């Protein structure tokens, strides 16, 4: 199968969209498919052995680390040259809209992945009164796709109520080999908590929409040491608000896995997450989780079994949840073990094969019922039908 991935964000920028796209590309390579990436530049020339076409990008006002790809004519030209079987639209806004439009002109189905609460993002950055316009535009973009994949039940309900068609669930995978309790580092713990404090940590982008400043309510909790992993535009302000917290900066690879596993409690503060991969990685690392009762964490955290949910933005409730876990080591151990069990089966291999089934289904649905009414090359359809239900090439009869 030939898959064109049009993504609003890609390397070297690291965020939820980029990470998901990278895991999808790695899975396509493992399964023997062909892929093309179209992304805002600057960026790499290739990833997972697949070529990357970069288009001009512009940083958002007040948040230049987020680059918006410009929908140039190169998008359609490159897609026609590649001749994909399906177009994957990763969190489509502007560049993704161009990809969706080009796919329709070519008679190729597209699968859109809804991953960013753009309206909530805009509100956090002071763009008031934009909700209606943003939702109208996103609905227009997603209506051009054959299917919209959503990461959580909360997002599914939100989009369904707003009239988005063709919705289906597709949750994120987690690398349970990389993120696991055995990565715990006693050396790191001694460095961060020399007096045996309970390590309570946050991992994520340090930005307004993450509401990391809510952690200030934990600053004077006895025997608790705050740990913050990540970077972003709010870092300077947060360092001032949390002078006793340990800021570890941006971490990836094994250093990130070690940081997760060395914590005792994981706290997420942002209420606008469509999924929240950081929560899932913390759970794979064997941690009990405290998170808002909103968005993606509602599906991930089972209250009184793997962690606790608090009313969004309620600092008193957040503090009470953390105090309860900080004072009960046995509860932390029990819920942390349950967290690990609840997510360790969600490998990117399983999730990737589920995505391939979505691709195959929209290609079958898009095929002409009789005669060549749709401009779908017969050779392209033949390629699609070579693949079985699990996304792998079917054995020859």
TrEMBL record:
Pfam families, per database record: Glyco_transf_4, Glycos_transf_1
Gene3D superfamilies xref list: Glycogen Phosphorylase B
Glycosyl transferase family domain segment(s): 189-340
Record domain Glycosyltransferase subfamily 4-like N-terminal: where: 14-178
Keywords, alphabetical: Glycosyltransferase, Transferase
Transferase keyword on record: yes
PANTHER family, per database record: SULFOQUINOVOSYL TRANSFERASE SQD2
Name this polypeptide is given: Glycosyltransferase family 1 protein
């Amino acid at each position: 199968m030939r898959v064109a991935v049009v993504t609003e964000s890609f390397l070297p920028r690291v965020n939820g969209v980029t990470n998901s796209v990278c895991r999808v590309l790695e899975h396509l390579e493992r399964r023997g498919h062909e892929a093309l990436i179209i992304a805002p530049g600057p960026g790499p020339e290739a990833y997972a052995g697949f070529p990357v076409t970069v288009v001009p990008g512009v940083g958002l006002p007040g948040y230049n680390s987020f680059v918006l790809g410009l929908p140039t004519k190169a998008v359609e030209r490159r897609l026609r040259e590649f001749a994909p079987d399906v177009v994957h639209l990763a969190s489509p806004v502007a560049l993704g809209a161009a990809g969706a439009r080009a796919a329709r002109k070519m008679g190729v189905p597209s699968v859109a992945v809804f991953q960013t609460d753009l309206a909530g993002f805009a509100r956090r950055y002071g763009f008031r009164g934009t909700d209606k316009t943003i939702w109208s535009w996103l609905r227009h973009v997603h209506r051009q796709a054959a299917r919209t994949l959503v990461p959580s039940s909360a997002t599914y309900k939100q989009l369904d109520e707003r009239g988005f068609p063709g919705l289906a669930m597709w949750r994120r995978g987690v690398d349970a080999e990389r993120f696991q309790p055995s990565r715990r580092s006693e050396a790191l713990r001694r460095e961060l908590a020399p007096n045996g404090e309970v390590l309570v940590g946050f991992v994520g982008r340090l930005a307004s929409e993450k509401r990391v400043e809510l952690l200030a309510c934990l600053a004077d909790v006895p025997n608790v040491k705050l740990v913050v992993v990540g970077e972003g535009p709010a870092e300077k302000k947060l360092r001032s608000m949390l002078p006793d917290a340990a800021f570890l900066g941006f971490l990836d690879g094994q250093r990130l896995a070690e940081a997760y596993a060395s914590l005792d409690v994981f706290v997420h503060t942002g209420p606008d997450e469509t999924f929240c991969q950081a929560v899932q990685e913390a759970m794979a690392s064997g941690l009990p989780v405290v998170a808002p009762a909103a968005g993606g964490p509602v599906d991930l955290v089972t209250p009184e079994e793997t962690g606790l949910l608090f009313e969004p933005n309620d600092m008193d409730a957040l503090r009470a949840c953390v105090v309860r876990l900080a004072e009960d080591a046995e509860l932390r151990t029990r819920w942390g073990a349950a967290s690990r069990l609840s997510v360790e089966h969600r490998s990117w291999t399983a999730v990737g094969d589920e995505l391939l089934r979505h691709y195959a289904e929209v290609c079958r649905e898009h095929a002409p019922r009789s005669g060549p009414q749709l401009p779908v090359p017969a050779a392209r359809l033949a390629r699609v039908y070579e693949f079985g239900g699990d996304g792998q090439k079917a054995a020859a009869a």
